[in-house]
Design goal:
Blueprint: H1 6-16, H2 21-28, H3 32-40, H4 49-62, H5 67-90, H6 100-127, H7 131-146, E1 153-156, E2 164-170, E3 173-179, E4 182-192, E5 201-208, E6 215-220, E7 224-227, E8 239-248, E9 252-262, E10 276-282, E11 286-292, E12 295-302, E13 307-312, E14 315-320, E15 326-330, E16 336-337, E17 345-354, E18 357-365
Parallel strand pairs: 1-3
Antiparallel strand pairs: 2-9, 3-4, 4-5, 5-6, 7-8, 8-9, 10-13, 10-15, 11-12, 11-14, 14-17, 15-16, 17-18
Length: about 375
């Protein structure tokens, strides 16, 4: 008897409830493409396995399926698929000897390939085009314009309701901020210099996590750009974001960011469905590392007197080199010393369903 696979179980459960993919996406705030990816077992659509497991758990909970059973079934399927090519590689060959005719054929084919490659190099040199240039062009036309460059580090900032917050973007530093529980990132892609400083034009990249694609727009000093769900690439955005450009230099830009009204039709958050919010007050210099919803955040030395405000939707990891150097306020609780002086401290906070009320979420610290 063949056991049903994960994707088939999810799809059949949804269809039994007479739900469309669009309705599920609206109820769960999971993108339609990820729901389809789970039902078709196209796990390559997810940035990492952690996200696939997280969405699978949320989808299964929504459909009132057995989470533990589905997780075990998923892992079993992954092990089976990973072992298949290994078995092929470890099969004994039918013969360990190669006859002379086979060897001669192999050598002939190899020499033909060498001759073709030498001719290709000669053509490239005569045309003034190197293989590095060709490879660079290929990457530029596909991945470079669509993905966040790995060289950019993101700092986390919060935008209180009814206020405008200045973001300073540089070649190697962008800003990550939360919009109605969506983690967004903004950074500079390039700067086109004008005749005067106020004529410089910056190309800005904007991303909604966990989507991989980047939405780009160009802006100059004094211009305002409104990001909203009417833009096809930003259809999942839950509220308008106003970006006013205050300055553009050769390698940086200063923008003023303001949140608009929440988008009509967005499913209201259940009571208690709040993000993880942590404020860190640094009394001494200390090394830090932050991971927000699986994405690396700031990493390095923070100076005494600085305040770091962090916000995550489902998981926040904090590592501090000197626990006695930092005070913490977590989701409005009383201020506490993070740890013992001179000791490395690691804190992990997760948002999980309230076991006594399915309409509420609670913030838990792992290890409690």
């Amino acid at each position: 008897m063949n056991q049903k696979r994960v994707g088939q179980i999810l799809k059949e459960a949804r269809e039994e409830k007479k739900l469309t993919v669009k309705e599920v996406a609206k109820d769960t705030n999971i993108s339609m493409k990820y729901i389809i990816a789970l039902e078709t077992e196209d796990y390559g659509q997810f940035p990492a396995e952690t996200f696939a497991l997280g969405f699978l758990k949320n989808y299964a909970t929504y459909l009132k399926l057995d989470n533990g059973m589905l997780m075990n079934l998923y892992r079993g399927e992954q092990i089976e698929e990973a072992q298949a090519p290994l078995e092929e590689l470890t099969k004994p060959t039918s013969s360990t000897l190669i006859d002379k005719n086979q060897m001669m054929t192999f050598v002939s084919v190899f020499l033909i390939f060498v001759a073709i490659y030498i001719a290709y190099l000669s053509f490239s040199d005569s045309s003034g085009i190197s293989t590095d240039q060709l490879n660079s062009d290929t990457v530029s036309s596909s991945d470079k314009d669509l993905l966040i460059p790995a060289s950019i580090q993101f700092v986390n900032q919060s935008i209180p309701e009814g206020t405008s917050v200045p973001f300073i973007l540089t070649e190697d530093r962008g800003v990550s901020f939360s919009v109605s529980n969506q983690q967004c990132k903004i950074f500079i892609k390039s700067v086109q210099e004008g005749r005067d400083a106020d004529k410089n034009k910056a190309e800005i990249g904007f991303n909604i996590f966990p989507e991989k694609e980047i939405y780009s727009f160009k802006t100059m000093v004094g211009e305002e750009t409104v990001l909203n769900p009417k833009i096809s690439e930003l259809a999942n955005l839950r509220r308008d974001i106003r970006i006013y450009t205050q300055a553009v230099t050769e390698k940086s830009a200063k923008v003023l960011v303001t949140l608009g009204q929440e988008r009509e039709g967005v499913v209201a958050k259940p009571v208690g469905d709040v993000p993880i919010q942590v404020s860190l007050i640094f009394n001494k210099n200390s090394y830090v590392e932050f991971i927000i919803d699986g994405q690396p955040g700031e990493r390095g030395i923070v100076s005494a007197g600085d305040l770091k405000t962090l916000e995550a939707r489902d998981r926040l990891e904090i590592k501090v080199g000197d626990g006695g150097a930092v005070e913490m306020i977590q989701n409005g609780k009383e201020k506490v010393l993070l740890g013992k002086p001179g000791k490395l401290v690691k804190k992990i906070f997760v948002r999980t369903q309230n076991p006594y009320d399915s309409t509420q979420s609670i913030i838990k610290e792992l290890g409690e």
